[in-house]
Design brief:
The chain has a 6-stranded parallel beta sheet, sandwiched between helices. The protein has a single domain, classed as Rossmann fold. The chain is built from 9 helices and 8 strands. It has 220 residues and is α/β, with parallel strands linked by helices. The chain is globular.
Length: 220
């Protein structure tokens, strides 16, 4: 299987940036690629190109239209709210099983195809009032790419996320530490701290860098 679930220690950490760069790296290796962003909030219809799903489509070299967004994103909401809150305020039935089916249906039949399912928010962000993204990960049974970044509290948040995943029996394929801006902390600082406590494979993705070395290391 060449499919992964991308989650993070929190929101605005760099999940989509990392996922998009991995998709581009896979395409440069000649692989077919696909992605699924089941839930998305914080973007209006006039900003779809800048949305998480839009950036993933762009990385797949696909056009960004309302139709293609709907192909990879089951529910999108303009208010920047957690999915369960956004659904509740929109009066939408919170059907976890339907969201799970949508994500499962996105998984490619060809095991060589590189595929990502990207969560919304962090690992413990609610999907519905009764299910968390950690539940979605376990129900899909995909190996996890955990994304973090260098910020105050990142060591605790990253170790907590790793502990939750490992206690549930999830397979953690990689920790990727992003650098969201040129003046942000060097990813190696956080990686060095995490390696004191965890042997999970950890990789930096510096600002403006390509993910080809990470993709190569994950697929040796």
């Amino acid at each position: 299987m060449n499919s992964y679930f991308v989650t993070a220690t929190g929101t605005d950490i760099g999940k989509t940036y990392v996922g998009a760069e991995l998709l581009r790296a896979a395409r440069r290796r000649g692989l077919a690629v696909s992605a699924c962003k089941p839930l998305m909030s914080g973007f209006g219809e006039d900003a779809l190109a800048r949305s998480d799903a839009g950036l993933l489509l762009d990385a797949m070299a696909r056009p960004v239209t309302p139709e293609t967004i709907s192909e990879i994103c089951r529910h999108r909401f303009e208010p920047p709210l957690a999915p369960n809150v956004a659904m509740r305020r929109a009066g939408l039935v919170q059907d976890y099983e339907e969201i799970l089916r949508f994500a499962r249906a996105s998984l490619p039949a060809d095991p060589s195809q590189f595929h990502l399912v990207e969560g919304a928010g962090g690992l413990m962000s609610p999907v519905t009032d009764e299910k968390l993204h950690s539940d979605l990960i376990m129900d899909l049974g995909l190996p996890v790419i955990l994304v973090s970044a260098g910020y105050l509290g990142a060591v605790s948040h990253t170790l907590t996320a790793l502990d939750v995943l490992q206690s549930k029996g999830a397979s953690v394929a990689a920790l990727i530490v992003s650098q969201p801006s040129a003046d942000a902390e060097d990813p190696d600082h956080l990686i060095g701290e995490i390696r004191l406590w965890s042997d999970v494979p950890a990789f930096p993705l510096r600002f403006g860098a390509k993910a080809d070395p990470i993709f190569h290391a994950m697929n040796q």
